[in-house]
Amino acid sequence: MMGLLQRWVLHNFWLKALSLLLATGLWMAISADQEPAEVALRVPIEFQHMPAELEISSAAIPDALVRVRGPERLIRELRSTDIHAELELGDTKPGERTFDLKAQQIRLQRELTVVQVVPSQVHLSFDSRLTREVEIHARVTGDFAAGEQIARVQVDPERITITGPRHHVELVDAATTDPIDASQTTTQATFVTNAYVPDAMVQVVQPVPVRVTVIMEKRAPAEREP
Questions:
Q1: What CATH number is associated with residue 82?
Q2: What is the pLDDT of residues 111-163, one digit of tens each?
Q3: What is the pTM (predicted TM-score) of this model?
Q4: Is the per-residue pLDDT at 73 higher than 60?
Q5: In the structure, what pLDDT confidence band is assigned to residue 32 with cuts at 50, 70 and 90?
Q6: Looking at the structure, do residues 103 and 178 belong to the same domain, yes or no?
Q7: Which domain holds residue 92?
Q8: CA-to-CA distance for 44 and 221, rounded, in angstroms?
Q9: How far apart are CA 85 and CA 65, in angstroms?
């Protein structure tokens, strides 16, 4: 009996030893991948079912820092694009509102667990959307030749459409062009530029190039005192 067992053990001994070594290494590799690990990722907050005529009027919208735990093989490959923080805005109205940001608002793979979400609350301001037209004011600068001055400035188009939170849009008197240096202009010259609104919460609807024509004239000589 002992001889039979010895022959079985020694038969293809090195092949058996190699197989055992490979199996042990594979088990250790898989076991290490299953060990729990943790990572913190910064992800954007997605707003679900935003009412069509509502605008977020908060100057800054925070990201969410999400701590996630799970098997190391998944944590190692995890990217911020794989995680989504969601807020439901379907019943939101103009005004201020605070939302709880919990693990239930985080969308990720089933094998992963949300450990912490920072911030735990998000405070936002909302306003109804307003769209209206405003004039475009040209900003012309320059050192002109002696006796020359600007007679008039023509802007095409003269008006532009803006949109955004009502209280922001109502405060906009006009859009302004980028600075135009007309120093070399003697009779008239046309410049192509852009118009903008200083308030970052207000958007220009369908931005287009703005043509500004600067027309010069001779300055009338000063009258001499008698």
A1: 2.170.120
A2: 888 999 999 999 999 999 999 999 999 999 888 877 888 899 999 999 999 99
A3: 0.71
A4: yes
A5: very low
A6: no
A7: 36-119
A8: 64
A9: 10
Q: Is residue 177 a contact partner of residue 195, using CB atoms and an 8 Å limit? A: yes
Q: Copy the structure tokens of residue 96.
A: 């201020």
Based on the fold, state whether residues 106 and 47 are members of the same structural domain.
Answer: yes
pLDDT at 21 over 60: no
Flag whether 225 is in a domain: no
**177, two tokens:** 């062009």
Query: Are 142 and 194 in the same domain?
Result: yes
State pLDDT tens for residues 163-177: 999 999 999 999 999
Secondary structure (H, E, C), the chain: CHHHHHHHHHCCHHHHHHHHHHHHHHHHHHHHHCCEEEEEEEECEEEECCCCCEEECCCCCCCEEEEEEEEHHHHHHCCHHHCEEEEECCCCCCEEEEEECCHHHEECCCCCEEEEEECCEEEEEEEEEEEEEEEEECCEECCCCCCEEEEEEEEECCEEEEEEEHHHHCCCCEEEECCEECCCCCCEEEEEECEECCCCCCEECCCCCEEEEEEEEECCCCCCCC
Confidence category of residue 30, pLDDT binned at 50, 70, 90: very low
- CA dist 113 and 39 (Å) reads 11
